[in-house]
């Protein structure tokens, strides 16, 4: 606190109520779940702050997981240097513009000054605006020293010097640096260390709960969450469970008819940590596990009133993760450095409202960078309409990814039309046609966005057989053998293999 000049001791002005504070103690674990160190952090009781008095805006951008995977794909493809740094007490770098008064921390009151309060000068942890003020400070420093902010992901920066470049990704207080020049990488490290109190962690191996495995000789890089999955399994007493071959299989059914009907059934479910388990599955799904995207979405639909069948399905996913916790999302060099998307949909399979489920997965250099499985908002009346709505959803996200990668300025092929595969020929023909007849007449105007992108030559939609549709597991349960084949094609494997 003294080093960062966080506060001044002052008399409390009349009519002002100071914000409280408390100590928070935490055990920091290493990637293997072992105790690394014990931490004590002083935090302000931000819940007592008053809007437009103690704070104004609170929004702070957060880096997308897509950005992490895009950078990993580029690191593997170009054999880039990949290092990591940690900002010590990051939030204490943010300047505070409002007058905020805080009670003195317990155990550290200077003798004779017990009656004074702390007038905060920095955005101490716990304040509602703390994250925003830290980001604004970091952004100011980066732009001042020649880093360009990505317009899609505002926590991703690029600096170029001739043919050399450095990509920087900020995750609150964790920083990833990828560069094709070791000298430029070290220059960026010196810049960061000069402006902030940094810890240099060397070559990246573990960031935001994700383990990074790299074999530079073979040109391979893998992302896994084995330690995280082990902790989740232990938390719910599933660490010794028998593995399942798949998280969901063909024939598995979900619906509100499985929800509790009586008070006794509801009372029983209140004793079961269903919502907590689904929340734990979410982080694995979002980061490295596209293979559980569909079942995660299905389980999430019944969060408010889950039944025993839903709970059994959630435990089945945990058993699947038990058998596949060593799986790595793998990246390697490819001759095909372009973004390719796969879009799929079922038709009216939701037992509750007959809506369809869209699924998509995007690849860069033939490896996964983004995926999604979600229920469509529109009730469609044909398979073609359901598939076309899925194409629309995939197109919107694909354009976002395209713009994100364009901002990195290191992938020339991104200037070509985005290629999107669909396994429904009618939807493909409708996307590439200007006619306004048939089922397409009943679609909302916004879905014509797809045709506009095709006409502008920014999008190319092509037909592909269902047998090789990578997004198929995002929309339905499959027979175990077919599911395993799709998982392998998604880039998930137990060992890094060329």
Automatic annotation (TrEMBL):
Name of the protein in question: Reverse transcriptase Ty1/copia-type domain-containing protein
InterPro entries per record: DNA/RNA_pol_sf, RVT_2
Organism in which the protein naturally occurs: Mikania micrantha
Domain of life of the native organism: Eukaryota
All residue ranges annotated as the Reverse transcriptase Ty1/copia-type domain in the record: 4-249
Pfam families in the record: RVT_2
